[in-house]
Structure formats: C-alpha cells, structure tokens
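Let's do one together. I've listed all components of the complex below, 1414 residues spread over two lines.
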Amino acid sequence: MVRFFLNGDAVTIRDVSPETTLLEWLRGAGRCGTKEGCAEGDCGACTVAVLDVTASGRRWRAVDACLVLVPQLEGLSVVTVEGLARGAALHPAQQAVVERLGSQCGYCTPGVVMSLFEATYRSDVASSEARDDQICGNLCRCTGYRPIREALDDVAGLDPEDAFRAARAQAEAQPARAGAGARFAQPDTWDGLWAALARWPDARLVHGATDVGLEVTKQHRVFPAVVSLQALPELDALRDQGGGWSIGAGVRLSDLEAASAERLPVLARMLRYFGARQIKNRATVGGNLCNASPIGDLAPVFLALDATVLVRSARGDRRVPMDAFFVGYRKTALAPGEVLVAVEVPDPPPSARCAAYKVSKRRELDISAVSAAFRVEVVDGVVTGARLAFGGMAATPVRAFAAEAALVGAPWTPEGAAAAAAALSALSPIDDHRASAWYRSTVARNLLIGFAEEGEGPLPPRHAGTLAVGGAP
Amino acid sequence: MKQLVTLQINGEAQTSAVPPHWTLLEALRYGSGLTGSKQGCDKGDCGACTVLVDGQPQLACCSLAVTAQGKAVTTIEGVADARGPAAIQRAFDVCGALQCGFCQPGMILSASALLARDPDPSLEAIREALSGNLCRCTGYTRIYEAVALAARWLREPGDMRGEQANVMGPAAEGFSVVGAPLRKRDAIGKATGEVRFTDDLVLPRMLHGKFLRSPHAHARIVSIDTSAASALPGVFAVLVGSELTTSYGIIPWTPDETALAVGKVRYIGEAVAAVAAVDEDTAMKACRLITVTWDVLPPVLDPERALDADAPLVHEADPKGRALSSNLCKEVGLSFGDVDQALADAAVVIDDHWTYAGSTHAPIEPHCAIGSWDPDGRLTVWSSTQVGHYLHRELARVLGVAESAVRVIQPAVGGAFGGKSEPFDLEFAVAALSRKAGRPVKILYTREEVFYAHRGRHPMRFHFRIGADASGKITAVDNDILLDGGAYHSFGLVTAYYAGQLLSGPIDFGTYRFRSRRVYTNKPCNGPKRGHGSVQPRFPLETAVDEIAHRLGIDPIEMRRINALPERGGTTVNGQFVPSCGVRACLDAVEAASGWKERYASLPPGRGLGVATSMYISGTAYPIYPNDMPQSAVVLRGDRSGRITAFCGLNEIGQGSDSVIAWIVSEETGVPLSCIDVVSGDTDLCPVDLGAYSSRVTMMAGTAAKEAGERLGARMRDAVAAKLGVPPERMRRRTGFWFDGDDPERAVDHVTALRLAEAAAGMPLGEVGAFRTRKLGADYRGGTIGASPAYSATAHVVEVDVDRETGVVKIVGVWAAHDCGRAINPVTVRGQIEGSVYMGLSEALMEEMVHDGKGLLKATSLLDYRIMTSMDTPPIDAHIVESIDPVGPYGAKEAGEGPLHPAIPALANAIWHATGARMRTMPFTPERVLAAIRAVGTREQ
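Okay, and this is what the predicted structure of the assembly comes out as:
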C-alpha cells in the first residue's frame, strides 16, 4: 500500500507493484491531463510536480511521471496539470501559456505547464541560462519554443501567495517516508535497509529511478524486489569536511548543481548539460556513479578531482578511491550488500586549473559522445600534476595515465598539451551511432589542447555553447 | 399502514400519507409530485437526489420520510424565486456546466448550501461541498467555475462576462475579425488538460490491442501459430494478415499495403499479428505466445543497390498482381527547354552530389485508435488521424463494408506534421479486432512503434547541375534524384513528382530538367513530412545558388532578387501559374532584420550568415482520388438563440483550423465568436473536407467558410434592411450588430438579425459553402502535380557560430519572413512560422533515421533520435509579409509548411560562411562538420 497526496487529496493505492510508474497510474486512474510521449524521460510531456523535502530545502520540483515509481511516493505531495486551476482562475503558469500562444497541438502543454509551475516557485531562475535549463526537458514539435520561453519569463520566480506556496511551507510537508509492500521496501533507517537486503539479496536498489525506470518502461523488467533508498535522510547531506566536500549519494543533481556553482564550479558546469531538469530533479549522484556507464557524466569529473567514495554495508564502512571504483563495463567495486553513501571530493590545490567538457550531438538532453574532465597543477608555467579523465573513450570512465605522465614536467602551453595529447592514442574508443572512433579520438585531443589554449585567468569568450562546459563559471 | 407526515417543502406545509419505509425521495417524487429530484442510484452514491433539510444537504434516497416530520425541505423546484433563476442556476448556464442535466438538481442544491455559509469559497471548499455529487458529463471544472462565478455575482451584482473577452487586439483595416490577434478556441481547454485526445477516451468494456512485429527486414511468413495466444485467459481476439487481405494505399492507384503482413514482411517492425485482451499486459503476453516460422530473405537497404539487376525484390508483384522485375517504384522525367545547351553556354556551372538524410515527424502524441461496432453493424473509429475522410474510405474498403457503415471521429490530435496523413495498421486492427471480439478495442502505439510507422522525409541523393550567366541569372537546372522509398508506396508517386515539380520557384530557371526515381528498400516506409517532397531538393539548389553568387561576386541576397519570380502573375519554367509571390519583400525583411548589409562582410572567424528562399503550395489542385465533388465544404446552421454552428470535416491537429473557420464565419455574419461553434473531424456530422495535408485548410476550408458565411450574412443583411427600411447595400456590420451605414445609430443586434432572417426565410437558417476544384496546372503528363491555387514564399537568414575543435554548430539567430498572402490571425501565423523554422533546423542539425546492416532502426527513442530542445532552438524572429493573394480567402495563402524549407540550405550556407566548408550531406552533425572543416581549411586560413 502507498499513500500520498495528489492535487491536495489523500490517495491510497493498494497492491501496487513496484514497477508501476506514476504516469501509468495517473492515466489508468482517468487523470489523463498528464500525457505519455515517450515513457522514457526524453520528452517531458508527462511532467508533474512533487513537493520534495531534503537536507537542502523544500521545493516543488518538476519530474517526469514516467520515471517515478509509485511506491516511492509514500508521504509525498504530487500536483498534476489538473490540479492547478482554481475554478475559473487559471494558475499563472497556465495563464501565461494561453496568453503567449504557447500551445498549438497541446500535447506537450501539460508538461510545459508543469515545468513553468516549478519555475513559478523557484527563487533561482533569474538568469537566462537557468531558464534555458528549466524548460529544456520539454520537447515541443509545434511552436518553435519562443512562446513557451516567453511564458516562462512571465512566471519565473513569481512565487505567488497561493495554496502551493502555502503547501511548501507547511510543517506537514515531509521527506519521503518509510514504505513497504510486496517486493518493495523504502526503509528510513540503516537497520531497516540491512533487513530488507537480507530478505531480498537480489533486490534492485533505486533512488531517483531515472535509469531503473527505463528498465521498467522499455524492457518491462520485473525485479525480484525493489529497495528504495529515498527515505534514508543521511544520503541527502552535503557536508563541508575541512579541505574537501562530502556529497551524499542521494543528493539530487539539481541541488548539487546549485550548491556547487561557487564551491566547485567545474561540477556545476558539467551538471548544467547533464540532462533535463526533470531528470536532475530526481537523479542522484550515487545513481549516476553506480550504474557505471562508460558515458556517465559525473565519473570523469570525480576521477579528475581525485575523489573517494564511502561505501557501507551491514559489516561496516570502507572507502574506495574513485580510480578503483569502476572495474569493468557497467561494473563497480561494490560488493553484494554494499551501498554507496557519499563521494568525498578534496578541494583542488591553489595551483590547479580544472575544466570539464561534454560533447554531444545535441547540447541538452543527450548522451555524451565524449566527456572529459581535467585537473592540472601548474607552477611557474610548468605542469607539476595532472589528472585527465574521459568518458566515452573506453568500456569504463578512465584516466589517461600515459598522457598525464607526458604532461607532467612539460610547459603548460598548447604545444605542450598537443605533445601530451599524442599519448591519448593509448585509448581506443568504439564506433557507434553516437560518434565514430575517429571523431572521439580527435575531439579528445582537441579538448586537451583547447583547455591549454584557454590560458590563465577568466576564460576567453569561446564560441558559446560549442564547448558545452568551460573551466570557470 | 401509512403514516401522516407534514413537511415544509419549499416554504409550504404539505401533509401526505406515506408508508413508513418510504424514503424522502419517494415521498417527494411520488407523494408530492416534485420530480425535479432525481434517482440516480438509490443507494447514496451519486447525489442526484440531494435536497436541503433545514438548510443542510441530505441524500433524499437515504433518509426515511417519516424522520423529516416538521422539517424544512428545499428541492430544486424551490431554488428559483419570482425574480427568475437564482444566480447559481444562471452561472451553471453561462459557464456551460449543464450538459445532460441529470445531476444538476442535486449539484445546485449542494452548491446553494455552500454559498449560503461561505460567500467566497475556495476551490477546495467548492470541491469538498460538491464531493457527494457525481457528474458524468462535465468533468466538474465548469461546475466549480459556475459556483465561483455565482459567488462573485452574489458578492458583486452587475459583474458580467464581456462578449468580447476573447479578443486581444484590433482587426485589419476594413475588417472586424480578420487580422486580429485572437486566442485559439481550444487554448484554455489545453492549458487545463481538459481536451481529450484519443488515448484519453475510454469506452465501456473496452479491450486493449497490441501488435506482434517483425524482427526481420525481409522474410517470408511460412506459418503463424496463434493457438497459445488465443488460449491465454483474458485474450478476446487474435488477428493475422490472412484475415484482412484487401490491400490499401493513400494513392488509389498504388494500394500495396495490407493491415498486417500477408505472405512476407518488408521491414523490421512491420505488423504481423494483433491481439485484443483485457489489458495491454495480457495482450503483450499473448503476442509473445504467437509462433511465426520465417524464411529469412536477404534485405535490400541501399537505394542504389536496390536498382541492381540482382537485388532482392521488395515487392515481387504490383498491386494488380503483375510480376515486377525491379525495385523501381516510380520514375518521373520531365524537361523544359534545352538544358544541355544552356549548361554549355553558362558562365558558371556547379556539378556535384548532395545527400539528404531521412527524418521523421515525432509528434509528441503517439498514434492511437479505438474501434467499436454498434449492434446494427456500424463501425466507429476514433483516431489521431489528420485525414479522416481518406481513412473513412479505406476502412470501408479493407473491412468490406459500405462507406455508409463507417464513421470516423478525430479527437484532438497531439501533433501530426504529415505523420498521420494516411491509414495505419492500428486503425484497421482496432476495427477488425473489435468486430471479432464484440467489444471496443483501443491500440496506442509505443514510441518505438511511432518510429516504425514513420512515413517521414524521404532520404534523397542528388546529382545536381546548375548553370548561370555572368549576370547571375540562373539559366539551367538539371537534377537527377534518387528517393529511398522504404518498403511501401505511401504517397510515393506524388513525392517523386514533387521532388522535381515544386522546385521551380521562387527562383526562376531559364531551363529545367529532372529525373526522379523512387525505389523500394526494406526499411520503414517514407512519406510526406511537412513540406512534402519539396524540402529536399532545395538543399542542393539553394546551396549551389549561394556558391554561384560567391563565384560571381554577387551578394547572396541580391542573387536571389535577380532570379525571383514576378510579384504578380508569374509562370514557372514548368508551367505553374503563381498568382502572387512576395519573396522580394521577404528578402527585404530578413536583410534588414538580420543586419545583413552591415555584418555580412565583417563577421569574425567561426561566425557566418546564410540566406535561402522557398515557395510552397496552398493545397493541391486536385483531390487524391479523381472526382468532381468539392474538396472542402462548410455547412452553417444559424439558430434563433443567436448562435451559429459551422460543420466542416476538416482535421484540427493543433494548427488552429477550427479557429480559422470560426473567425471567418464571425467576420462574414457579425456574430460574435462566443456564439460560434465549430464541429469538425466527424464523418457522420460534417461535410467532407479532404484533411489536414498539403497546407490546404485555410485556402480550401477557409474559402468554403467564407462562401457559406457570405450567404448567411446576406440573409441577415437583407432581413435587417427590410426591417429598418433601408436598401441592403447600405447595411454594414460590426461584431454583434448590423447597422445602417448612413445612420449607425440604427442598429440591430446579431440575435435579432438571425431571428429576422429565419422569419424571412420561413425555415431554419442553413447555408453551405464549398471549395470547388478549378482547372489548374500545365498541359502535359504530370503537369497538374504541383499545381496549386496559390503559392506562399519564404526567405530565411540564419546565423551560426561553429567550433572548429569539435565541429559543433550553434545557431545564433534566425530571421524568417513568410508571405502568407494575408494573416487571418497574425499570432497563429507567427506560431506556424516559428514551428516550421524549428522543425527545419532540427532536421538539418541532428535528425536522421539510421539503420544498421540488417535494417534495424538504431534510434527508436526521443533520446537516440535527437530533436532540438528549447535550448538548441535559437531566437526566431518571424516576419509576416502580406501579398494579398487574388485567389485565397481575404488573400490568404499557406503558412504551415513553406517556412520550413529555407532553414536547411540557409544553415548550410551559414556554415560555409563561417568555415569555408560546403556541406553536401545532412544532417550537419559535429562529426560531419569537423571532417568538412578539416577537408577544406577554414576561411581565415
């Protein structure tokens, strides 16, 4: 059984399988305002809002209903497009879409409205870039986006005094609560987690479900059991621990993006191009690392920054250097019964320059052809330390050890970088429909050389948007 | 034994004898004859019997009459008073909260009780107050609105809704509606999620269907065993191809498809069998239990290889059963003037090969259909189609029933773009499965299935030659085109013609020759995508013209002015008459807006500007199947209540065609928009319109609406003139009124005008209007294909920023000017321009249908098949040019497809300007751009 609030009404659902998505349930229950466009988090037509309470705050978040597993909603509040209008009075987000002619065929409109709804209550969407990010997860084939963007500009940051603002402030608003069902557990204590894992050793661990959700909607996967980590509060924490930062495995990527803007800009910039806001509102640091994809976008950044992961099991804690975490294609060093608790990132030394790049066919909402993150320490114009990490260049995210060795001791110039970049030939990427091996290798070289060309101080104005991520904010 | 009960009913003491087991409802309905209170369920579930007892709502069916002894009971009959209906009742009316009306008595009483205790109820309070009243018609929203409105009226008497609340700005000079920036009729419904798309529809006892699809690109079906699937509990019908063997096709001469594969499959994803079951899960399970024995054949995937003598045949026979010896589906060759001599004489010749990648529509709504048979053997199909009429005809043919036994209803469609413009397997399958199962059946495509259904942009390969004289005048174009058709014919012969016939403007050629060959391959079928057949050849033409301009030292915009068709009454080299062509004004607009003159020569390295133009049809000259009937018609019904209902079989797919009809009818009759209804997309209720394709709706349905509106308006004018005693020609109208032009004080409102007209006619008001086929086109075989009543014109300037390290192209800005003849609504025209520009840039930059060596489509999701997001979409500066076409209604031409065309070549020309690399292959991915830059070096080098 799962209980949550839908448009202000308490909802109780019995006998729901852990593989039921919120979208499937909503439409099955006759709440057809929320649309299915792809059922895989690519189009945003199913966007709804969830009141999310974490260590970093309480906010309405736009999420893709197709990638939310219903049992995970225990205790949460959900708002759909049907829940916005108050009698004849449209919500500002709806009114703006109407006034700006932001709807043609209307199929993406409910999702667009819900992304605008999130923006209505956000206090950090003043910049053009933040607004771009807000709406990039909603695909529209009719309008060309201009009217939608204007509607967004109308409502962003309004934060009107209304029921949704009130709901956000209410004490009853809680983080996800412990829940349980047949083949499902969402423990809120570590002991509860160990018990669940002891009961179902083959359980699928899930947090934001943005990747697991695809296995459900596309492969019709039925898991032996699903154990959700969403109610373990410690996982939400972002902690300064003197000389470094501990990032909880359950930190939502949108929160990490906001928090790292000043603390660790290289991370913030990579997250900007990571994916749709709806995805970043659910996806977590731990999930991105644990699925161990060779093109996971966070891995190269953490590799370059010399991070360590904190791992916990019923037997106790241990630490694993990031370098040793990825042991094969989609395989990690986690033993059975272990979960990732946090990523510990040391502050880069003052002599370090950091940059991260993501190259893909589409700027947003795409899987990297190549991603790269670099931390190079330069003293008196000479490289004294280098960590060069790449995604999309091998079966796992990797460091380019040969190129690092070639770089240390060399002058930090484009020529020096070009010489070291020759050693990248040790990496042999594959040809696939995202890019050819030729393109990957060429771009990997060019990124390193380009990094060196950027020189000291603030970045020169590059061809905006071409190198997706720069080295400084 | 009866008991005497005295009740204060609606303020009046009534004593009646009732059996002790009677409910209050029975006492009211049978004892007192007050039948306003309804019995909906008789068990307290529905609330239709709600009455007030001592001011509190109660369910009359759940209380015994005797227990109400001495109490005050208010029923619906007691809500109105001597002054008329109560505010709550008027509000229900005004807000459209009344549909069937059965639940309203109880609803209104619950609402009355709420308003009595809370003069300003929140929505929560309203919902809570009405939570015991079930309504099956309205979805409640109108009801909440009505309650809120009633509350406002009670607080602020005199506050009324303005009739013109829908108008956002003034109309064009001389008009009352045309040219005004109006809201679309369905905008609010869409913003609230109320509009129902096909998948939002649920019928009683409805089953869900799923397809088994082919895993092979080319294979014979040796046998199909469906016994295990049929035996699965919850399965009600299983269908295989041999049960529906009548072939169909959107073009009547080339019916080469069947609902499900018969004998063999021709692409991966082709439907082989279908199952209807209680739910989708069971249907999927049943599909997995179907065993197909295959004889796998070698596939042919490359269109050039498909023409080899030893290539496997995709089709062994044509639709008439005659053996085929080649995969050539259609070949067209036409020649106008001495091309060879003109090329020999040319000062500059470009001779090269171009490749245009296939792309797909990707509407956000997947295709969906529901089929249902009534007990008398009539079929109704609800479908997300954009061609309801053609679907109607093909359903009847394939299912073997009379057309009169089929009804097609098109609910709201969530985007189409040509991808829903012919019949699909699911529409036949829901009808056939429903017939077998005796229950309604719904099928909703998965996103993956949308990619297999496809009918997208044809991949084309061009050997393109073009020559110009020293002044820049284009003297010759010679184009050899190879179209990869995929597995079936679809619109193929039209596409093959369009690839050549539609290229001849707005750039005018001295001589022209093309050969166009469409071939079958073992891939999902290609068809019409926004700008059918004519988008692709503009890529070689407009990039080659750019190159000639560069070689001759002519400014690229000037180059297009030199070669433009005349503004009025031009004729293209292939004999098409172009009544109006505003391309020069379009070029002027984008040249000024983009700062072209100041910036073209001075942009920094990596930055570039590119220009391109195009022209597109406003509907086709002739219907797809030859006939002498109108191509579109509108029936108007004027009602003495002051309303007009317009019936038209057009398919509203989000483009606003319902709204266009309403605007035109309002313009011609003076009846306000709030009093005009449009009924469309229903083959039972509406006269035929051929559908939402080839940019024909404003031209054709708009003309029909104008003709019908003029006729109804004339009746109103004459009747009012007679009443006022003035000659009819002195009458004028503005929204809501007809008046004497010499004395505007003498006016009659539109309701009275309709009543006077009805009285004068002596019968209910009805008028019809139509768009009739006119003789168009040139006098040679194929000369009518590409002929249109009018042609739009477009010019784009695109600005890019190209990164030479990664090849990534960022589009910095787009300026698009489109000659739509007359903007009936500038806001919706702008919406069409912007949507077109976006879609064109998206396919130029990243869209591509990629298959592996076995014919498997590699990108079947909206992640792997990339379409531009809001982020990739640059600011689009849309300009409207109004050439006031002599043919179209009010001078209007198309706006929904033309503005897509120039996006692709303008982008390519901008990339060249930024880098020196001439892109010949689409899409312009970072990899292709990087390779092209490497090949030629950059401009500054």
